[in-house]
Structure formats: structure tokens, C-alpha cells
Write a structure and sequence with these properties.
mainly alpha; 2 helices
Length: about 70
Amino acid sequence: MPRPALKTLTYSAMHFCVAISVAFVLTGSWKAALAIGMIEPLIQTVAYALHERVWERLGMARAPAAAEPAQTA
């Protein structure tokens, strides 16, 4: 699996957990927390993937460490 896809999937899993937890703390309802926690991260994951693509196209993506010039003291 390509690194960007894996990064997006792991971010999505973390986001689901955070969103459900926050929604539960705010509502006190697991039903509401699951509803909110499932919808918001799905939308956010798509937005994140699009954001990454835009950064890559603009040349803003971070270059691999090996490609960066060495700094001298």
C-alpha cells in the first residue's frame, strides 16, 4: 500500500476515535456520539486526502530526508 494511502487510513482511524470520544463527552449519548463520530471523520478524511494532493501539486510536500541538502555548521 502506498505511504500516502496508509497515512490517510491511519489518520482516519485515529480521527474516528477522537470524534466519537468528544461527541460522547459533549452529548452523553453513545447513539449520538457514534452518529456524529462516523459522519464527521469520513468527510474530514476526504478533505485531508484532497489537501495532501493540493500540497503535492503545489510542490509544498516535504521532500524525503535523503534528498535534502546537508547543512554545514
